[in-house]
Specification:
With about 180 residues, the chain is α+β, with helices and mostly antiparallel strands. It has seven helices and five strands; from the N terminus they run ααββααββαβαα.
Amino acid sequence: MTPEEAGAALTAVPEDLDATVAALPGAPGFLAWWAPPSVLPTLGGAAHPHAELRLLELGEARMLRNRVRRQDLYRCGVSRLRRVAAGLLLDELALAPTWAAEVILPKADESRLTAWLEARLLLTWVPDDERDAHRDPLAGLLGETGLGGGAAGEAEARYVAAAGEKAPREVGVPYQRP
């Protein structure tokens, strides 16, 4: 597969998110998260060539299925897309970040954020065994991502700041997620 072929797959008009996630293989490759301009508008991102969407993130994965199901649609601690979205949606979704080893959301907050993202974002993906060789050409073909701008860094910082100061933990006392 060439970078141009991978780019064509990533810029296909995204289908229903549930069907797209269900079809994800356990193969390495690239993924692109897209959103209408009205969703998380402060992030920006390159325009989709065939739909009224903009590119939020161009990501890569060793296993596409795990990247999406166990990171981007699961927990803030392992997904920058989720941390940035949480920072932008703190008030709207009444999210309450807290400290563990890193800043996390309580399970109920993670569920609300997941539901919000699933209702608004779209995904395209392409399996690709040559991620190292195709990373830069693909980024050039697809353009700037919303997570690449300064607004994303500010949102992520807001998410972390909302957790407050990290409290010292008692040695020997296991952490329990809220």
